[in-house]
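Tokens for chain A. Residues wanted.
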């Protein structure tokens, strides 16, 4: 927790705690405790506590992989907080495989359809895979913007679509500077 307050970012421990607590909130199972997680990955409860409180980090990549499997998240997200890696894990079938990265598929249906339509236009305009990935990241960042007064989960589909449109304007400006007219 100390690191996250200093850097105003979520730390490994914060992500670990969040994923552990989120697992038991499906209404069917009780909350996954530190003891439950410790038993699942083969460590002592106080080790999980130290990980969550920032006292230490797991050093063994196999342990990080075991934590990720148990918590049903990706190791990339657990280590770095990479939104793209965690979201790519939860793809909707309709967009899987259409583009180099497919995190757009995790947006609400209207916003996802809008963003994928924009990406189709870029593909038709001859953009490279790298440009498509960059555009997708900008569209996703726009949709999940941190400037909005309400958290992403509480925003209406219309608001998310408006943010995707704003991000699209930025993508078009960047590509036009490079001579691409989407």
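Reply:
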């Amino acid at each position: 927790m100390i690191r996250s307050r200093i850097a105003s970012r979520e730390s490994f421990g914060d992500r670990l705690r969040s994923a552990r607590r989120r697992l038991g909130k499906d209404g069917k199972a009780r909350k996954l405790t530190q003891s439950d997680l410790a038993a699942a990955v083969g460590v002592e409860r106080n080790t999980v506590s130290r990980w969550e409180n920032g006292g230490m980090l797991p050093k063994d990549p196999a342990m990080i992989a075991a934590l990720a499997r148990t918590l049903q998240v990706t190791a990339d997200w657990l280590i770095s907080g990479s939104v793209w890696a965690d979201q790519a894990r939860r793809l909707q079938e309709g967009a899987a495989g259409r583009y180099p990265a497919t995190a757009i598929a995790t947006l609400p249906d209207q916003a996802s359809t809008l963003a994928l339509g924009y990406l189709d236009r870029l593909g038709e305009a001859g953009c490279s895979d790298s440009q498509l990935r960059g555009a997708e990241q900008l569209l996703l960042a726009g949709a999940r913007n941190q400037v909005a007064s309400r958290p992403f989960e509480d925003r209406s589909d219309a608001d998310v679509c408006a943010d995707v449109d704003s991000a699209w304007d930025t993508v078009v400006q960047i590509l036009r500077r490079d001579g691409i007219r989407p």
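The chain is about 60% helix and 0% strand. The CA atoms of residues 41 and 66 lie 6 Å apart.
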